[in-house]
Design brief:
elongated
Length: 216
Amino acid sequence: MSSVVREQQGADLSLGRFTPSLARIETLSDGIFAIVLTLLALELKLPEAAGNNGFLTALYQNSGTLEGYFICFFIVGNLWRLHHLVTDQMPGETPGLYILNLLFLASVTLTPWSLNNLVIFDADSGSIIAFSGILMISWCLLIAMLSSALPLLKQDPDRHRLVRIIRIRLLGGALVGLISVLCALFLENLALYAWFLLIPYGYLSRSMIRTRLENS
């Protein structure tokens, strides 16, 4: 065997060894989501001056911190669930999958920071725009990940159709994020609660998916 052939085989083995598999991508993503969800709880801090009052009084006066935490946990939990839905449908050889997934995870890791901004700035319009804007980017990156798989699925019409339907479901997060940003500009008190629109949108999209699959 010539040295050129051996070098080529060694290069192929090296590439295969260091190319992350879909399973490793999911494992990394689950670990990062676990850390992010834990860090959210660490942002639950009462002001030092609150020690002059009773605990329940201080908790009531800073109830916005708890509201922000539960809203944020709900949103990140949805992203984790949808990320699994996306990776279940994606071929491992999808172009740009690893880069898009890393960008998605980078945006998710900014969530505790954006929650802390909500606490520090008392959920003013700027902190809400940053919070919802980052999450909207996360949803857009998730949509981009799913869309990148479509060219590889043209030979499988059923799966191709399913991925397009799931993409419609994912659009809800991006739209809700946009609504939250707009509310921060004009209806600041409702901006964070706009994220709960994900609940009815989720029910409607699941119903639509079932209907399309039954009619196909």
